[in-house]
Amino acid sequence: NAGVTQTPKFRILKIGQSMTLQCTQDMNHNYMYWYRQDPGMGLKLIYYSVGAGITDKGEVPNGYNVSRSTTEDFPLRLELAAPSQTSVYFCASRRGPQETQYFGPGTRLLVL
Amino acid sequence: KQEVTQIPAALSVPEGENLVLNCSFTDSAIYNLQWFRQDPGKGLTSLLLIQSSQREQTSGRLNASLDKSSGRSTLYIAASQPGDSATYLCAVRDTGNQFYFGTGTSLTVIP
User: Given a cut of 90, is residue A41 above it in pLDDT?
Assistant: First the structure.
């Protein structure tokens, strides 16, 4: 049971490039989340999903897209990367409405 | 919009001391509140989850309380140890599926 895994661990992008951050969980959790954490700040919710085929915007969705074709995977797509998207990205999942979130180790993204 | 504040931003205590971390939120219509620990360069680890109908939760040396009406939660750490050094984050879930995090309290326990 690996929990929540994220790839890559670290990536440098040039302005205008695109990339997909991968997130997979093997706990059969319905709910999955993407957050970003800027230095010295708390986490901000980007997108979330309550089950396969269902996604919704969080607090800071602009510049990102998600999909949820399976229960296990919840990739985050960055189109036209901008320096403002330099951050650490965390994926999380939880089983049900009253249960705790489990976090992945994060992806550090630098946009230059 | 929910705003979550954590005070102090940083705290340094000698080993063995009991301490309290504070979390306040602006909208009392919450589903639950969760405390997390974050070690440098790592993800978040859940410590305690308090449902909106509960007043407190305990796990080992940790005790978290929730006063929904006043928009406050505290995390009490008893007999602090150097291994407790980390950043502690609180997060509130609204009545939907959105989570709002505080900026955290960075704790250093001095041996």
Answer: no
Q: Which two tokens stand for residue A21?
A: 């951050």
Please choose, from the candidates A6, A86, A58, A32, the residue with its C-alpha nearest in 3D space to the C-alpha of residue B99: A58
Cβ of B34 within 8 Å of Cβ of A99? The answer is no
Q: How far is B108 from chain A (nearest CA, A)?
A: 16
Distance from C-alpha of B87 to C-alpha of B37, rounded to nearest angstrom: 6
Write out the E strands in A1-112.
Answer: 4-7, 10-13, 19-25, 31-37, 43-51, 54-57, 64-66, 76-78, 87-94, 102-103, 107-111
Mean pLDDT, all residues of chain A: 94
- The C-alpha of A51 sits at a distance from chain B's nearest C-alpha, in angstroms, of 12
Residues making up chain A, counted from first to last: 112
Tell me the chain B residues in contact with residue A98 when contact means C-beta distances shorter than 8 Å.
32, 51
The 10 Å Cβ neighbour count of residue B41 is 9
Answer whether A106's CB lies under 8 Å from B43's CB.
Answer: yes
Q: Which of A33, A59, A104 sits opposite B43 (nearest CB)?
A: A104
Residue recorded with tokens 């396969």: A52
pLDDT digits (tens, 9 = 90+) for A84-110: 999 999 999 999 878 889 999 999 999
Query: Cβ–Cβ of A103/B103 closer than 8 Å?
Result: no
Residue type, B91: A
